[in-house]
Amino acid sequence: MTEADRRQQAIVDEFAFLDDWMLRFQQVIEHGEAMAPLPEALKTDDRLVRGCQSRVWLDAGAEAGAFRARADSDSQLVRGLASLLVRVYDGLPVEEARAAEVWFPREIGLAEHLSPNRANGLDAMQRALRAAAG
Amino acid sequence: MPDAVALDVERLRADFPILQRTVYDGKPLVYLDNAATTQKPRAVLDRLAAYYADENANVHRGVHFLSAEGTETYETARRSVQRFLGAEHAHEVVFTRGTTEAINLVAHGFAGRLGPGDEVVVSALEHHANIVPWQMACERSGATLRVIPSLDTGDLDLHRLDDVFSTRTKVVAVTHTSNALGTVNDLGPIIEAARAVDAAVLIDGAQAAPHAPVDVQALGADFFVFSGHKTFGPTGIGALWGREGWLEALPPYQGGGDMIDRVTFEETTYAGLPAKFEAGTPHVAGGIGLGTALDYLLEVGMENVAAYEDGLIAYAEERLAEVDGLRFVGTPAKRAGAISFLLDGIHPYDAGTVLDRLGVAVRTGQHCAQPVMDRFGVDGTIRASFAFYNTRADVDALVEGIGKVQALFG
Predict the structure, then answer these.
(1) What CATH number is associated with residue A9?
(2) Which of A4, A83, A103, B106 could form a disulfide with A35 if both were Cys (CB 3.0 to 4.6 A apart)?
(3) What residue spans of B203-242 are helical by DSSP H?
(4) Which residues on chain A are in Cβ contact (under 8 Å) with B364?
């Protein structure tokens, strides 16, 4: 199991007890609230992730061999989703970030309710993270 | 108090199979995205199946039985459109892929007639489909695009028409009803202003045709366009009505089979109306399905539809106005179909996602009308849009859902 997988498993375990979609949404929102906001100076157009109905900013890249990721959104749900992705990616060795496969959304029943085809941009965020990992 | 009109909504709902379905874990579907597309009555679904099962053949060109029969059926559908629009002639009705293609057809035709210094007028409430084709026509011809401004209510500022119209105005393209805000425009003064300067007038009827009677002759415009899928018919079909003289004057939009009179390598002469604008094998099933949908609507009675929906919209406005933290985007003097609003501190996407999970289908975002959003200084809105098969219970479900959204994000 890679570090990215371990982190995703921790997210899955945390959501396992929430059998109601409303509770899952609530949990996602709370994760978003707990994430440090992106400084306003970093909310620039070149950090906007395309393909989302809300505005999502992603600030990610390699720093001294480690992959760093920060994000923000004006949507509370999307901010929560972004915070979970950041939790998976931030601090991984760059090599691992490049190879990481994101699978936790479907395991916690979020893919069903917030599928990548929708306007939340979960898929777009993943692609942006992968691109940032080079 | 029940609506005192001759429309039995429960009986009509039974005509729409999809309205009986549930979404997610058994939530009854509350479909409030009718401005995006409308559901189809059983009559249309059956007609499409019967066409492909028993009648399929190419039209306008075969000597055989099915081709002749299909041609007659297709042309009968055209007469249904003619009846629905109150048009003088069936050959003034051109089948298109929808409103967008119909506007492109007309704008393309005008591009060759416009020149530098000429002006095209649209309104501040247009859908992108009634902006971009005219911008393209202006780009090709050197003409300039002018815009009738809107008020904070979401109504057009009809006191400013004199500033916008001039003797250089050649064509005016205005929506009858705003898809983003639900504003029903008072077209009389606009058409009058266009007439005063001899400009042609196109009315985008996509959001008007599903909600109230249309009478193109009484309206006094030169072109009227609408979409099949927004009038309870199939996707991929719509219609352009144009005055005979204008359709004769405009050049063909696309070249191909069916639209020609005689072809040699030196020269091609074009067919008469409406074939001149219908190159290639048409969407026969779509046309027939649209005809069936419009016949269905005429049987329900568009006066009945309008009266019922007026009551429903008034009820929805009243219920939504009671919601704390809800702000209407646009409070037009006359409204049809759509209500746009925002919830304080809640992103429209978040609201739409939770409403969806509760079974309430609304649209969120910019509604293909970015200039409207810019005008109101918002990134997007939540839009609930109604059809005659919606009920007060649907409105109640929306209001209840909004309460849950506010509880979750508050």
Answers:
(1) 3.90.1010.10
(2) A83
(3) 216-219
(4) 53, 119
Q: Does B405 touch chain A (CB under 8 A)?
A: no
The interface predicted TM-score of the complex, written ipTM, equals 0.91
Report pLDDT digits (tens) over A84-102: 999 999 999 999 999 999 9
- As a whole number, mean pLDDT of residues B55-61 equals 89
Q: Helix, strand, or coil here: B361?
A: strand
> Is B287 an 8 Å CB contact of chain A?
no
pLDDT value for B146: 98
Let me know whether B91 and B218 are in one domain: yes
Q: Which residues of A are catalytic?
A: 52
Q: Do residues B316 and B291 share a domain? A: no
Total domains in chain A come to 1
Task: Give helix A21-34 / helix B348-357 axis angle, nearest 10°.
Answer: 160
User: Is B55 within 8 Å of chain A by CB?
Assistant: no
Contact B148, B372 (CB under 8 A): no
In terms of Cβ atoms closer than 10 Å to its own Cβ (0-12, 13-18, 19+), residue A54 is buried
* Residue at B39 is within a domain: no
Q: Who among A25, A26, A54 is closest to B347 (CB)?
A: A54
Which residues in chain A touch residue B348, judged by CB atoms under 8 angstroms apart?
Answer: 53
Select from B221, B197, B201, B198 the least CA-distant residue to B123. Answer: B201
- The pLDDT tens digits of the residues spanning B318-347 come to 999 999 999 999 999 999 999 999 999 999
B36 part of a folded domain: no
* Residue that the structure tokens 């042609």 belong to: B200
Q: Give the integer Cα–Cα distance in Å for B245 and B218.
A: 17
Domain that holds residue B338: 9-31+302-409
Chain B residues near residue A76 by CB distance under 8 angstroms: 346-347, 350, 409
pLDDT digits (tens, 9 = 90+) for B363-392: 999 999 999 999 999 999 999 999 999 999
- The list of chain A residues with pLDDT below 70 reads 111-120
What pLDDT is recorded for position B25?
Answer: 86
CA pair distance B223, B250, nearest whole angstrom:
12
Whether a cis peptide bond, with omega within 30° of 0, leads into B274 is yes
